[in-house]
Design a protein that fits this description.
It comes from Tetrahymena thermophila (strain SB210). By secondary structure, the protein is an alpha/beta fold. The chain has 10 helices and 9 strands.
């Protein structure tokens, strides 16, 4: 706080001095020039004031997360929606640190889209959330935050300590976690064996076949999983990745509802057939929604996918684009 007060007073005295200087030489300068000079200084002064207030607000915002937990140690449910506010790599760990002190927190909705938190911010946030050991329901939106492999690994490592999680919604659309990042994420998340409802959004993340296999391997560990939404739009998992994904999802025998989006992934006929073969093993599946790219599947493959319809399958939606 003192830094900002000093910053303000420095410019205040700077402008007082310069206006006094102008006043002293008023007899030697043209009146029009004086007015122009004053006008310019006024504009500069207001710009600096605006910058000061922006920095002051951000400073208060960061400090809030450091102290708010001490006022709410018994907090059970917290919802915070904050998009595009330049929280950055410093603010995100502060949020995590504050939330980590809320030891009774069980329900959390945290939306930090478009804040450029990066790898450091994501890891710091995950570290803080990992201290919320009673967390059972988590919605975490981190779209478009310049998160890479290291950030995804750190986030997964932290969330993996939340072993009481039963419902998870994680949105990492429009980052760049890649194969290494998504595999690292699941290396931590696979510790959350009590998960029954999962929604994962990994659109535009440069995920290839190795990453798809990592996702599948992680999901296959959740024996209690009943509802799964997985959006991999516009990656490059290919036929092998899609087949491996389908095979591992097939291990989730308690799965009753599945939404799977593999549009723009170059899965081809091999991938679509592999997904179909794997999902046959989900014997309790009742609701199935698939998103395929029509150019990747010929008529025969479409029929193979439709053959998944069984006595238990009540709703089957296959969307072609």
């Amino acid at each position: 706080m003192e830094v900002y007060l000093i910053y303000y007073h420095y410019y205040q005295y700077f402008f007082i001095f310069n206006f006094q200087f102008i006043y002293n030489i008023r007899n030697t300068l043209q009146q029009s020039f004086i007015y122009s000079f004053i006008f310019i200084y006024q504009n500069i002064f207001f710009i600096i004031l605006i910058q000061f207030f922006i920095k002051f607000i951000l400073y208060i915002n960061y400090q809030f997360y450091q102290i708010f937990s001490s006022f709410f140690p018994q907090l059970i449910k917290y919802q915070y929606l904050n998009s595009s506010n330049k929280i950055g790599l410093i603010g995100a760990p502060n949020i995590g640190s504050g939330l980590g002190k809320c030891i009774n927190l069980s329900n959390l909705i945290l939306i930090l889209n478009c804040n450029n938190i990066g790898d450091e911010g994501s890891s710091g946030l995950g570290s803080g959330l990992g201290k919320c050991t009673n967390l059972s329901n988590l919605t975490l939106n981190l779209q478009n935050n310049n998160i890479g492999a290291i950030g995804a690994l750190g986030l997964g490592s932290g969330l993996g300590k939340c072993t009481n999680l039963s419902n998870l919604i994680l949105n990492l659309d429009h980052n760049n976690i890649g194969d290494e990042g998504v595999s690292g994420l699941f290396s931590g998340l696979r510790q959350c064996i009590n998960l029954s409802n999962i929604e994962l959004y990994f659109c535009n993340n440069n995920i290839g076949e190795i990453g798809a296999l990592g996702i599948g391997s992680g999901l296959g560990k959740y024996t209690n999983l009943s509802n799964l939404t997985l959006n991999l739009y516009n990656n490059n998992i290919g036929g092998i990745g899609a087949s491996g994904l389908g095979y591992n999802i097939g291990k989730c025998t308690n799965l009753s509802e599945l939404k799977l989006n593999v549009l723009k992934n170059n899965i081809g006929e091999i991938g679509s057939s592999g997904i179909g073969s794997g999902l046959v093993n989900c014997i309790n599946l009742q609701n199935l929604t698939l998103f395929f790219y029509c150019k990747e599947i010929n008529i025969n493959q479409q029929f193979k996918v439709k053959c998944l319809k069984s006595k238990r399958l009540v709703v089957l939606n296959i969307n072609y684009w």
